[in-house]
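pls design
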């Protein structure tokens, strides 16, 4: 596996982005190692909140929420998924899969950091990866906040159709992403936000990718979308749902009313996960898919109102 790496100083000087950052090394899956970049802010002995982003973002997405939870007394951990941000980037699209992302984050969060009693805050692909981690390691996770994502399900006992092809609302986007001559994740911001992103925000999303080859992980995510019934994530998700269908620890959904990516992703989560019953689920007004950018104060208020002060 050939691995690409963003410059270590790529995030230096970004407004509001935490300076409390470090790297951990994890197995790549082929006898080499990958370096995972993460924010690690707040009291190292405090209760832990882990923020998992999706695509086309990185830990920069969570900068406002990291500041808020550390002020409330928590330790905030926000890794960059492998292939994203300042984490190492396997160079080939075929290197990436949902199962690989789950294993990479498991190794970083549980093997290297040995985190327990974790509160997950999940968004987009971070929702799929985080819910898989919670289902596979329930002893590590105490509660979850899930935003603008879904957890795709297919009964793997049902036979596949005779003709298998991509379909659904994301199929055209997937095809476009596969064929685009260059891939610039930061240019997708206007498509997933309600407000026009300022130049400083665009720069924040562009910063880890001074060379176009470094965007391979973002483009790879587009090809993992579940547009086909034989998507390789379905068996793992099917097994995870067996655990989540009996999950009684607290689960909160915070979605937004103008999300064009996963507007109904909360419905099966609330309907199927017992721990979601009776929680103050909310759909915030005025936010697109990146509600952390469109309505950061509203999102942070909803998050902190549910988390409460650490130890409170």
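designed seq:
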């Amino acid at each position: 596996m050939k691995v690409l790496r963003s410059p270590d100083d790529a995030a230096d000087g970004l407004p509001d982005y935490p300076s409390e950052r470090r790297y951990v090394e994890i197995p790549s899956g082929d006898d080499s190692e990958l370096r995972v970049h993460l924010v690690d802010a707040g009291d190292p002995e405090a209760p832990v909140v882990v923020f998992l982003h999706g695509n086309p973002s990185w830990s920069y997405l969570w900068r406002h929420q990291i500041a808020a939870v550390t002020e409330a007394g928590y330790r905030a951990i926000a890794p960059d998924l492998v292939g994203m941000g300042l984490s190492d980037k396997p160079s080939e699209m075929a290197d990436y899969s949902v199962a690989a992302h789950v294993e990479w984050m498991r190794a970083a969060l549980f093997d290297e950091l040995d985190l327990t009693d974790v509160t997950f805050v999940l968004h987009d692909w971070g929702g799929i990866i985080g819910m898989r981690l919670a289902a596979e390691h329930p002893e590590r996770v105490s509660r979850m906040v899930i935003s603008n994502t879904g957890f795709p399900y297919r009964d793997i006992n049902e036979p596949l159709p005779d003709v298998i092809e991509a379909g659904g609302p994301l199929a055209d986007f997937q095809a476009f992403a596969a064929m685009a001559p260059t891939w610039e994740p930061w240019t997708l911001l206007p498509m997933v936000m309600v407000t026009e992103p300022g130049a400083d925000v665009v720069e924040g999303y562009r910063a880890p990718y001074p060379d176009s080859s470094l965007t391979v992980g973002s483009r790879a995510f587009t090809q993992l979308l579940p547009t086909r019934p034989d998507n390789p994530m379905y068996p793992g998700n099917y097994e995870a749902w067996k655990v989540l269908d009996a999950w009684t620890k607290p689960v909160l959904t915070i979605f937004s009313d103008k999300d064009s990516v996963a507007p109904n992703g909360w419905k099966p989560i609330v309907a199927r996960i017992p721990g979601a019953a009776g929680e103050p689920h909310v759909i915030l007004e005025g936010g697109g898919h990146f509600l952390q950018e469109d309505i950061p104060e509203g999102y942070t208020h909803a998050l902190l109102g549910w988390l409460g002060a650490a130890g409170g």
